[in-house]
Design a protein that fits this description.
By secondary structure, the protein is of the alpha/beta class. The chain contains 8 helices and 5 strands; from the N terminus they run αβαββαβαβαααα. The two termini are about 25 Å apart.
Length: about 220
């Protein structure tokens, strides 16, 4: 019997090029423009978990670092000052960290750097100190819209093609019904399915996908 060895984790680094835009084309264009030398210095992105906020923030830091420019990213904490600073999950900051972010905002404004912050809610509804909430709303504010199932199926199909195999529609639909809602997690499962299929010398199928998903559940138990 073939042993199923899986590490269900994203295998590709977030970039602006591999972000599936869906209804976020304007946001993606604005971020590219800012990184290319545009005038906007502050972005606040909000949306539900799995919508792509973290992907975009990490992608911007990666693009800046490749330039090369000094760039820092942090999740749930305040990053160090740099030319490009990205911070995920502003709504999880405690009182001390909120003061840090407030001070960082002012320092970034004075230095001319780009500050990107994300949260699950629009600035008006954030449970943060008033002065910080106000400043987060001063720049460009975008809701990051998650992909619908049709867009996710298209993204999964393109990902499969890039890896050199064809994804049967029924496999994509089964994964969308029974997998995570986050596209990054769906991609990771698809990568695991590809490895499992190659190991068994069988084409990707719903039965093989069930084995991958079952193993994922067992690893989480």
């Amino acid at each position: 019997m073939n042993q199923l060895l899986l590490d269900i984790a994203p295998t590709t680094q977030p970039t602006l090029d591999n972000f599936v835009a869906g209804r976020n084309l304007e946001l993606l264009s604005a971020l590219r423009h800012a990184l290319a030398g545009g005038s906007e210095r502050s972005f606040y992105l909000w949306g539900e978990t799995g919508s792509g906020k973290s992907h975009l923030l990490q992608a911007c830091v990666r693009a800046a670092s490749d330039a090369p420019r000094r760039a820092n990213y942090a999740q749930g904490s305040v990053p160090q000052l740099a030319e490009i600073v990205a911070m995920d999950d502003a709504d999880s900051l405690d009182d001390a960290a909120q003061i840090e972010l407030f001070n960082l905002y002012n320092r970034m404004r004075d230095s001319g750097g780009i500050l990107l912050v994300s949260g699950k809610q629009a600035p008006l509804h954030l449970k943060l100190r008033d002065d910080l909430r106000t400043r987060l709303g001063w720049g460009l504010v975008y809701q990051v819209h998650g992909l619908n199932d049709e867009e996710k199926a298209e993204a999964l199909s393109r990902h499969a093609q890039a890896k050199g195999f064809s994804l049967p529609p029924e496999v994509a639909q089964y994964l969308l019904r029974h997998g995570s809602r986050a596209l990054s997690s769906l991609m990771a499962v698809l990568d695991a399915l590809d490895e499992h299929s190659l190991r068994l010398h069988r084409a990707p199928s719903v039965p093989l996908l069930k084995e991958v998903l079952q193993r994922e559940l067992e690893l989480k138990a």
